[in-house]
Design brief:
The complex is a heterotrimer of chains A (162), B (157) and C (782).
Chain A: H1 2-12, H2 14-28, E1 51-53, H3 68-72, E2 78-84, E3 90-98, H4 107-111, E4 117-119, E5 134-135, H5 137-159
Antiparallel strand pairs in A: 1-4, 2-3, 3-5
Chain B: H1 4-14, H2 26-37, H3 42-52, H4 56-65, E1 77-82, H5 85-89, H6 92-103, E2 109-110, E3 116-121, E4 133-135, E5 139-141, H7 146-156
Parallel strand pairs in B: 1-3
Antiparallel strand pairs in B: 1-4, 2-3, 4-5
Helix pairs in contact in B: 1-2, 2-3, 3-4
Chain C: E1 2-6, E2 9-13, H1 19-25, E3 49-52, E4 59-60, E5 71-73, H2 77-92, H3 108-116, E6 139-140, H4 152-161, E7 166-169, E8 176-179, H5 192-196, E9 203-204, E10 217-222, E11 231-237, E12 240-246, H6 259-263, H7 265-268, E13 278-281, E14 284-287, H8 290-309, E15 313-317, H9 323-335, E16 341-342, E17 374-378, H10 382-385, H11 387-398, E18 402-407, E19 417-422, H12 428-443, H13 449-452, H14 458-468, E20 473-477, H15 479-483, H16 487-500, E21 504-507, H17 514-519, H18 531-536, E22 541-545, H19 549-552, H20 556-565, E23 568-573, H21 579-582, E24 585-588, E25 597-600, E26 606-609, H22 622-632, H23 643-651, H24 656-659, E27 680-682, H25 692-695, H26 698-701, E28 710-713, H27 715-721, E29 727-733, E30 736-744, E31 752-754, E32 770-771, E33 773-781
Parallel strand pairs in C: 1-5, 15-16, 15-22, 17-18, 17-20, 18-19, 20-21, 22-23, 23-24, 27-31, 28-30
Antiparallel strand pairs in C: 1-2, 3-4, 3-5, 6-9, 7-8, 10-11, 11-12, 13-14, 13-24, 25-26, 27-32, 28-31, 29-30, 29-33
Helix pairs in contact in C: 8-22, 9-22, 9-23, 12-14, 12-16
Classes of the chains: A alpha+beta (162), B alpha+beta (157), C alpha/beta (782).
């Protein structure tokens, strides 16, 4: 029996028909290709992109230098140094994230007791030379300042699941 | 710092204990010192500590623990209201509130004329007589309803 | 002995011990906060509640003595329920600020809360808040709200520190740990309270917020300061020493550490560190490469050795240098043909040299101090010079020992001193002679004629009586006695006193390696010059190892003159210091944290350690520098690869225990006078001025102990001079003088003025002992 079907398949172009059927199906199906710079895929509020450091509404930076993110980071991408600020609070003098090392696991934001370090929805960032993706504290704070509205909205949406 | 008289009295207290346990007399010594000075300033506490060979902070521990010792100047009449649980349940808090309103001061405050000081006290061992007040560390007043309080204040005027 | 059963395990322990001790013996952990093996039992945290068979309620294991046949369950349902209940209460008022707490990661409460705490609090009300108080530059109490009132710190002050500076004031919910009216905590052992605190209520000010416990690497080391040789855990991050904690060693420092050992690490990170070799050329300092600096030094030394003669080369080292450094220094100097090498920079009497049977040492193991029943302290600022030995002496006194002192100052030793003889320095030998005479009379022994002539005073008689009645006597000579111009006399007298009562005689070594210096032979043999002689008769070339000439020597005036007159001064130092005025070559060497080495402590214990971090900048370990210097001088025998090789050579075939011997032969006792009557100087080396590292430890320099030195005199002396306390006076000695504030101390004998040595403010003065003049400065009220 198998011999007979194989015999017919050799000259009836059965595979071609099957292939064309698939092509035909996708030809009429809804397109999923995104024209990237103009079009974008939707993002969840938990999207883990570029990091940011947040501030309170008063302008005070949130980070208290507890170093939990540094300790939890599996890629050892975070580097923190702290000291006592003049007002007696614990603050960072250095907060660096090496984005080349970062694996965007989100442990840092999960471990943060004050929601200071967060991962934003930003994924379109780049570096042009070595070291451009080594983010320092002022850079992270600048990201936070710029996108605070979005960040706050995302945190609020996620709050009930935490 | 302390008068000769006070020191003599303290020495009499010290004599009640073995020589190497002078510090046993600390409570009596503080009471004598307070009697003389009106309240226990840091200098007075240091003087008592020096006399008993104790660390000043050890004497301060005692002076701050018991509320019959005053670490700040008080008025002529010091009224201590017990607000511990049994008293509180039987109207101690009301008595305190009435006193506050009557004297126009809160706890640990002195009336502007320097006459009355109001303090919050710990159990005086007379829960059955609640509400209980202590006047100037020695006079215990039981069942202090507003009328009795009025009478007491009148007496002290 | 009681046989008890804990969680099914049989334990045998002597009666009177507690359940928690029995449990620890059996390797069973019982959670606790207020219990500490070295402190008295308070039983106020209630965390150690355990179930005991037949007891109706859980009992605190720390305060329950064992009884035969007792059955204890530490993890039964009842015990765990009790412990969880206690934990809930403890957490009620404990702030949830672990992320900013310095103790986070090494906190006893945090650790136990993981096991016994619930994940959420049922407590809704407001937490207790404590207003922070200031207690000095070492301890921060900013977060006193975290306190769980275990009172370990209070008990430490009372029982170990000897002075109660913190207390628990107020009561119930308002109870808080505080000092009396914001007094600072000035005990020289105060740092231990930080270790003892089971939560983050007492934290270290210098360390505060700079690192978390989990990011620090722990390295073992040995303290380079006092002669105890405390074991250290140096904690390191990014090649920087972040803090120093004690490493437990029951025979040396137990679990304590003096503040000097604990906080001196700030000096290691000081901005004054020398990081590049430097040469002075045409009066200006230039940074150069190691090769150039070493060649310059070697050439200079060779020239002087070949020209003026090797005896014109002198080498001075501090007793804080390692054994390896001292050994190589003497080897270097001796190989070029000189014998002028010494490390006893503050000593002034060398008449026992060559007559000493061995290296002067404590005369007994350190731990034996606690078991003495009579202690005679001769010339020692014990608390400041040896903070932890003072604790051991205090412990002995607490157990019933009688302490007696012969000294020129009467600082509070924080223990009961049975007898005191406080006399001017030049009368000290006489007092010892009196004691010896009185003691001989008690023991019916014969003494030399020179002793026989002493008139026995009442103080000496009392001391002799006390010593005669003792079974385990120790006669200990402190730093002051060793620096004394009649040190050899004091030594002979002390030795005879100890011998008469069958006790131990010993020296409280001046510095970390005072014994090591002797083992390394870093002192002149027959024809060489000792430290004092080298400075009195200036040499043409000096090699200085860790020495700051104006601070580390007996006579800074003389030392500076000698340094300035020298043709070549090669200074090996970790710091850029005053040597820039007189040196020609500065070679940066590594302090103890950055080099391997060995210290031999005062009981003769040889303790080697490895470097905790890499040397800063271009600094190099001292032994390597000296080795290369030896190579460049074309001397043989400098082919070492490791510091261990140097140590092994220095100690090869040396039976250290046999080398330790305090006996001195052939020093004739002089008839000691009762004192001259002219104004004499008494000098202590303040605790935080004793060596180069502590002098640069910023926080220690802000303590009360590091305040600028005063001219302390007896009140009668002040009024005789017509000076009031608080006025400025001019203290002159030899050619130099210092302007100091006069202060009264009626515990000093009359006829002396106490002026600290080893401090920049008094570096212009001369020898640590001897005649001084004090004159008022008109209108000079400070």
């Amino acid at each position: 029996m198998e011999k007979i079907t194989n015999f017919f398949k050799t000259f009836l172009l059965f595979e071609l028909v099957k292939g064309m059927a698939l092509t035909g199906r996708y030809f009429f199906a809804r397109k999923i290709t995104v024209q990237f710079p103009e079009e974008k895929t939707p993002q969840g509020f938990r999207f883990r992109g570029l990091h940011a450091q947040r501030r309170y509404a008063s302008g005070e930076e949130r980070c208290i230098g507890c170093k939990l993110c540094e300790a939890v980071c599996p890629a050892l991408a975070i580097n923190i140094e702290t000291e006592e600020r003049e007002d007696g609070t614990r603050r960072t003098t250095r907060y660096d994230i090496d984005l080349m090392k970062c694996i965007f696991c989100g442990f840092c934001e999960e471990s943060c007791p004050v929601d200071a370090i967060v991962e934003t929805r930003i994924l379109e960032y780049h570096g042009e030379k070595r070291g451009d993706l080594y983010y320092t504290k002022p850079m992270l704070l600048a990201v936070g300042d710029k996108y605070e509205e979005q960040i706050a909205k995302d945190r609020a949406a996620d709050a009930k699941y935490r | 710092m302390l008068s000769q008289d006070a020191i003599q009295k303290i020495d009499r207290e010290i004599a009640k204990y073995p020589a190497e346990q002078k510090q046993s007399a600390v409570m009596a010594a503080l009471a004598i010192a307070q009697m003389e000075k009106g309240w226990l300033s840091t200098e007075t506490i240091e003087a008592v500590a020096g006399h008993l060979g104790m660390a000043p902070v050890a004497v301060y521990e005692v002076a701050s623990f018991y509320n019959m010792y005053d670490l700040a100047p008080v008025g002529k009449v010091k009224i201590t209201v017990c607000t511990n649980l049994p008293c509180a349940l039987s109207g101690g808090v009301h008595a305190a509130d009435y006193l506050k309103q009557k004297l126009g001061i809160g706890f640990n405050e002195t009336t502007p004329d320097g006459r009355f000081t109001l303090k919050e006290g710990e159990c005086m061992g007379a829960c059955g007589d609640a509400p209980v007040l202590l006047v100037n560390n020695v006079r215990m007043c039981s069942f202090m309803q507003p009328e009795q309080i009025d009478r007491l204040l009148g007496e002290c005027q | 002995m009681a046989k008890i059963e804990i969680d099914g395990k049989q334990v045998e322990i002597e009666n009177g011990r507690t359940v928690i001790e029995a449990a620890h013996l059996a390797g069973i952990y019982i959670p606790h906060f207020c219990y500490h093996k070295k402190l008295s039992i308070a039983a106020n945290c209630r965390m150690c509640l355990v179930q005991v068979e037949k007891a109706p309620k859980p009992l605190p294991a720390c305060a329950t003595p064992v009884t035969d046949g007792m059955k204890v369950f530490t993890a039964s349902e009842q015990a765990v329920k009790a412990q969880k209940g206690v934990m809930e209460f403890l957490l009620i008022n404990h702030p949830l600020d672990c992320p900013v707490c310095d103790k986070g990661g090494e906190c006893e409460l945090q650790d136990l809360a993981v096991g016994y705490g619930s994940s959420a609090s049922r407590y809704q009300e407001e937490k207790r808040m404590v207003v922070p108080k200031e207690v000095g530059p070492l301890i921060s109490t900013k977060e006193m709200s975290r306190c769980i009132n275990c009172t370990r710190c209070v008990r430490f002050g009372q029982e170990i520190g000897g002075i109660m500076e913190l207390g628990q004031a107020f009561r119930g919910e308002h109870a808080e740990i505080m000092s009396f009216v914001s007094n600072s905590v000035d005990s020289e052992l105060s740092g231990n309270m930080i270790d003892l605190c089971p939560v983050g209520a007492l934290t270290s000010k210098p360390f505060r917020f700079t690192a978390r416990a989990w990011e620090l690497s722990h390295r073992r080391s040995v303290s380079p300061h006092d002669s105890l040789g405390s074991n250290l855990t140096v904690q390191v991050k990014n090649n920087r020493v972040m803090r120093v904690l004690p490493a437990e060693n029951e025979e040396i420092n137990e679990c304590w550490l003096s503040d000097k050992d604990r906080f001196s690490y700030e000096g290691l990170n000081s901005g004054e560190r020398l990081t590049k070799p430097m040469i002075k050329q045409n009066g200006a300092w230039q940074e150069v490469e190691w090769q150039a600096a070493l060649e310059y030094a070697a050439k200079g030394l060779r020239q002087i050795a070949d020209g003026a003669g090797a005896e014109h080369i002198g080498a001075l080292a501090t007793p804080h240098s390692t054994l390896e450094e001292l050994y190589l220094l003497q080897k270097l100097v001796r190989s070029v043909g000189s014998d002028n090498v010494d490390f006893r920079l503050r000593q002034s009497d060398f008449s026992a040299d060559g007559k000493q049977a061995g290296a002067p040492w404590l005369g007994m193991p350190i731990a034996e101090i606690n078991t003495r029943d009579r202690i005679l302290l001769v010339g020692s600022f014990l608390r400041k010079d040896h903070p932890l030995l003072a604790h051991r002496a205090r412990d002995a006194v607490k157990k019933g020992a009688q302490a007696s002192i012969v000294h020129s100052a009467d600082d509070d030793l924080l223990m009961n001193v049975a007898n005191k003889a406080i006399v001017a320095p030049d009368a000290m030998a006489n007092v010892l002679a009196q004691i010896l005479k009185a003691l001989a009379a008690e023991k019916q022994a014969v003494v030399e004629a020179s002793v026989q002539s002493a008139e026995v005073g009442s103080a000496a008689a009392a001391i002799a009586k006390s010593l005669a009645s003792g079974e385990r006597v120790a006669v200990l000579l402190g730093n002051f006695a060793q620096q004394h111009p009649q040190a050899a006399q004091l030594q002979v007298l002390g030795q005879q006193i100890a011998a008469l009562c069958g006790g131990k005689f010993g020296f409280l070594g001046e510095a970390a390696n005072s014994v090591g210096g002797h083992l390394a032979k870093a002192l002149p043999r027959a024809n060489g010059m000792n430290a004092a002689a080298m400075l009195a008769a200036p040499r043409k070339a000096y090699i200085l190892l860790n020495v700051e000439a104006e601070l580390d020597t007996h006579n800074p005036q003389q030392a500076l003159v000698a340094m300035k007159a020298a043709d070549l001064v090669v200074a090996l130092s970790a710091y850029k210091h005053q040597a820039t005025d007189y040196a020609d070559v500065l070679l940066p060497i590594a302090p103890f944290s950055e080099t391997s080495g060995t210290f031999v402590n005062t009981e003769g214990r040889v303790q080697s350690f490895k470097g905790a971090i890499k040397p800063l900048g271009e600094a190099r370990p001292g032994w390597k520098v000296l080795r290369v210097l030896g190579n460049l001088l074309n001397e043989t025998g400098f082919e070492y690869d490791t510091s261990e090789a140097v140590r092994d050579e220095a100690l090869s075939g040396v039976d250290v225990a046999a080398q330790l011997n305090n006996a001195v032969q052939g020093v004739a006792l002089e008839t000691a006078g009762a004192g001259s009557g002219s104004l004499q100087r008494v000098s202590d080396v303040p605790i935080y001025s004793a060596d180069a590292i502590v002098r640069r430890a910023a926080s220690l320099q802000n303590t009360r102990d590091a305040e600028a030195p005063c001219a302390l005199m007896h009140g009668a002396e002040l009024s005789r001079l017509g000076v009031h306390a608080g006025e400025q006076v001019k203290v002159s000695q030899g050619e130099g003088s210092a302007i100091l504030v006069a202060a009264a101390d009626d515990r000093l004998p009359q006829g002396v003025v106490r002026v600290a040595a080893g401090h920049a403010a008094t570096a212009g003065l001369g020898a640590m002992f001897g005649a001084v003049t004090v004159e008022p400065i008109t209108g000079g009220r400070a």
